[in-house]
Amino acid sequence: MKNNIVLSLYKLENLKGESLNKPDIADRASLESEKTLELRTRDRARKLISKINKALKKIDEGTYGYCEETMEPIGIERLKARPIATLSIEAQEKHEKREKIYKEKDY
Length: 107
Fold this sequence. Notes:
With 107 residues, this protein is an all-alpha fold. It contains four helices and no strands. It folds into two domains: 1-64, DksA, coiled-coil domain (Four Helix Bundle (Hemerythrin (Met), subunit A), Up-down Bundle); 65-107, no CATH class. It has helices spanning 2-17, 25-61, 76-81, 89-106. The longest helix has 37 residues, at 25-61.
């Protein structure tokens, strides 16, 4: 795990340090797009690893498979489809509805 973090930091520094002094604007745009995609992919992987570690900790604690909001069991089919799920389908739907309402208020 530590080696992965060091490698990621090294690659991140390389991404930052690559020269953008390309003479062709299309080359610069392409390089910038590649960097953005790689950074986004790394961020998603980092978040997923964090969620996996959280699920493993819950297994150790005996709380894996229970909804964090209702403390009711999360359905087996949901856990098969999304092993890192922390909310039951019902609680997730409520969460998404609240999130949608708040986003609509921002407009």
